[in-house]
Amino acid sequence: MNLPPRASEAERSRASTGERVAASGVSPLATSEPMELDPRSFRHLADMQVNVELDTGDMILNLGPQHPATHGTLRIVVRLDGERVISADPIIGYMHRGYEKLTEFRTYPQITTLINRIDWLSSFANEVPFIAAAERLMGIEAPPRALYIRTILTELSRIATFLLFLGEMGLQVGALTPAFYGFRDREHILNLIEAATGGRFHPNFNRIGGLKDDLPWGWVNDTRTAMKTAFDACDTFEDLVAGNEIFEARTRSIGIIPAELGAAYGVSGSNLRASGVDWDLRRDGKPYLAYPEVDFRVWTHPDGDSFARYWVRLQETREAARIVLQLLDQLPSGPIMTKVPLIIKVPQGEIWVETENPLGQMGYYVVSKGATGPFRVKIRSASFSNVSILPWLLRGVYVPDVITILGSLYFILGDIDR
Amino acid sequence: MTSGLLAIQVGWGTTLAIKTIVILMLVPAGALILGYTFLLKVMSHMQSRLGPMDPGGFHGWFQLIGDGIKFIQKEDITPDQADRWVFAFAPAVVVISTFLTFLVIPAGPDIIVKDLNVGVFYALAVSSLSVIGVLMAGWASANKFSLLGALRAAAQLIAYELPLLLAVVGVVIQAGTMSLQGIVLAQSTQSIFGWNGIGFPFILTQFVGFGLFLVASQAELTQTPFDMPVAESELVAGYMVEYTGFRFLFFFIGEFGTAFAFAAISATLFLGGWALPASWGISVGVMRFLGPLVLFGKIMLVAFLMFWVRFTYPRLREDQLQAIAWKFLIPIGLANILLTGIFKVAF
Amino acid sequence: MSELKDTEAEPADPHALDEPHARLLARLGAELGDAVLEQEPCFGIPVVRIRRDSWRRAAEVAKVTLDCDFLSFISAIDWQPAPKEGDEDSSDTSSPVQPQDVTYGVAGSDGRFQVFAHVQSTFRNWGLTLKVDVDEHAMLAESWVPVYPGADWHERECWEMFGISFDEHPALRHLYLPSQFEGHPLRKDYVLLSRVVKPWPGLVDVEAMPDEPAADEPAADDAEGAGESDDSGGDPE
């Protein structure tokens, strides 16, 4: 069986200047031909999808919003010629909750509860940049023990969400079994998070100035055991999924994101690192949490296809487990909360804080006017930019590849829609 | 006409009726057993979970029967735009082709509905009738996802008929007959270089054919890794998506019944079918009871392989699937026939 | 949020730019000259306010000359203070009380609306926040799409939430909200809908297919019939 060839250097560099988009300044969508059908002749929308003649015209297919492959309520309107996609238009907003407006009416501790729910699979990591922003505006610093525990919990949520990804990427491609293994192995991590914070999914454990509580007795040893399970799980996935020839045939050379174009679109995190860009905010950005204290390696892959994204996340899961083990060894003792006033008023100012979340770069631009709540919070979520590249990425691929690409970009709807 | 066991004279019509009723009960029952054992329990354990445990008490054995009852009492919804009669008849076509396949599968020395002397040819021919049913279902559903699934299925099922056939030709050359009963007896009575301790199951020389047959039947059943037509994470049941209740149950029975049939055919062609080696000297009367059980055991073995692959591998994309059939499997099948012919003449 | 080693307490200026960022700011100033209206460091990242007609040129300079290849986000801000929430319920302390006087943020502002963006470099470890004023009555800004293709969705969001149009943007249409939504939610004079009961159109809420024209004209949102979709659903208005 011939595996499809990987994109040659020439192809990739040609595509990477984004010529077709940047030079003309016109989005690919605007150049597609108008539909020949008159929409007024149908009673309701479902008719329009059904009565399309299939002789020569293109077929318009709505993937979603209810669809098992799109991780939630994402709708992609693809125009097909047989099985090939001519154009794709993602329509988002089915889960828009108006977070940026809501933050203008909430105090800082209340906002912490809200933003937990942006990326709900690694929810601890969402709070970290916002808490950091508030703390820096106030000029306070959380004590070292709190910082270490925050880092450990962030890395645990990274492992949890990546284990799920490793499993369900197999599911998107058709293998039924890895998804269950992903869920099973994730349970160990979720149990740890629950033991420490009381909540599996929405811990709401951060406070401005530190953490709510200290760790329970025996947690450190349980975590060490769970990290061993995480390593075993990664090995299983490497054999079962990444080593499977059919998986490779389905993912190699599919959905190649050229590095420069990806950066221009704002694609971040593992997606960009899988295109060869060696950039990780834990190492390269402003130092935050306890990352300066640990040694870790940033994994990149030169190919930029779906397989590369899978592989990079697999390696990053292992790396996260190694980080956790290092942090557990170095965990300092001490208080977990600095002295903060009862009613938190953040002084006037603006700040931009960004972190390396599991999905990519997440950041908060907090504008404060000295009240108990912020004046404006701009939430920069990773999946929003990751998904914005879809109209460019999905041209000319087959329908099954659409699903593969969606799975490999790994977005969470709450992250896109906020 | 005499049935050998009990010397009762029954007419031709009654015999036919009895055989028909038995087949009509056998297929759903076989589908049920296959479905329960493999789909629910073996798959569950492979996926590190238990599967349904409550219905019926012992490991949830009642689950599938309960599912069947549930399906029967569901509302029958036909989409507004669907082509009414084609939509209604499509599942029937699929199930009919399944039932027809069972007419030639032998389960014992004379437990066979009709021992056609072109048995293999007939079995493969009628099993490919289901393509028509799939196409009817996909088109009549008035749903783009169904249509995509049906078109993929048509291309795939037709493409994989050829490796299926080529795999079988090797066996036919070795056995010298197309009749399934004859093939079983050939495996049971022939000997390997003079030693007839285990008869001569054709898998020993036709291992390439066995592999080919398994792969091709995996594709014929639209099971992973060839389940593009029913790609669950894309097309959400593909051509079956608009079917509810009893009609869906028909598709389900058709799918598992055909799996049962293909497993039975491959057990018959390659593993020796209902027969134990003749050198073991078991009388025909005993084989009348033992034969179905032996065949059942071999079916379970083959079905285990098929379902194991189903739960492990991801699915191939349509063009990769076609490439495998045309560029890989068919040349291997042809080479297999060539070699078999040479060896048959030489030895 | 960093130093965990004990240092002698020397209150360092939290806003001070480190050497790479200072260089970045200097080069930007050199390239743009007087298109830079104001600049100020903000917690280690330079914030620069650009003249209105040089917005796109600033993006080009950032991307090409300053190696800022990564577009983080483009968004907008409405500096007008939120109206006090009704004087009846003064005992309602559910929302934080914002000051009622108009103050502008880092690098100042010319008026009520500003578009701000953050760009970074993936290999030089520096970043830059750019701001531009938007005239309240014209509500127009230059689009960054020819420079950073990813600006497409960010600018659509700005239009949808604030009403700011971008020239040369291929298709300013709704991103999050239904295509018949009226108003621009993130403006300060737009009420928080959960505090006010807004009657839902009450009819079948059918979303038009994206290729259909007319339902989404920018700046034509208040005039369109308030979500009056009659039974022929996906009709463009």
Question: Strands, helices and their partners?
Answer:
The complex is a heterotrimer of chains A (418), B (347) and C (237).
Chain A: H1 9-16, H2 19-22, H3 45-50, E1 59-63, E2 75-81, E3 84-91, H4 99-103, H5 108-115, H6 123-138, H7 144-173, H8 177-197, E4 206-207, E5 210-211, H9 219-242, H10 245-251, H11 259-265, H12 270-273, H13 281-284, H14 306-330, E6 349-357, E7 360-368, E8 376-380, H15 382-388, H16 390-393, H17 399-409, H18 413-417
Chain B: H1 12-46, H2 63-72, H3 84-101, H4 119-127, H5 130-140, H6 144-175, H7 180-189, H8 207-220, H9 245-271, H10 284-312, H11 318-346
Chain C: H1 19-32, E1 36-42, E2 45-50, H2 55-65, E3 70-78, E4 113-120, E5 127-134, E6 140-142, H3 151-162, E7 165-167
Parallel strand pairs in C: 2-5, 6-7
Antiparallel strand pairs in C: 1-2, 3-4, 4-5
Short note summarizing the structure:
The complex is a heterotrimer of chains A (418), B (347) and C (237). Chain A is mostly helical.
Structure characteristics:
heterotrimer; A: 418 residues; mainly alpha; Cytochrome-c3 Hydrogenase, chain B; 8 strands; 47% helix; disordered N terminus; C: 237 residues; alpha/beta; Beta Polymerase, domain 2; 2 domains; two-stranded parallel ribbon; 7 strands; 16% helix; globular
Provide a descriptive summary of the structure in words.
The complex is a heterotrimer of chains A (418), B (347) and C (237). Chain A is mainly alpha-helical and 418 residues long. In chain A, 47% of the residues lie in helices and 11% in strands. Mean pLDDT of chain A is 82; it is low at 1-37 and 41-55. The longest helix of chain B has 35 residues, at 12-46. Chain B is built from 11 helices and no strands. Chain C has 237 residues and is α/β, with parallel strands linked by helices. Chain C has helices at residues 19-32, 55-65, 151-162; strands at 36-42, 45-50, 70-78, 113-120, 127-134, 140-142, 165-167. In chain C, a hairpin with a 6-residue loop joins β4 (113-120) and β5. Chains in contact: A-B, A-C.
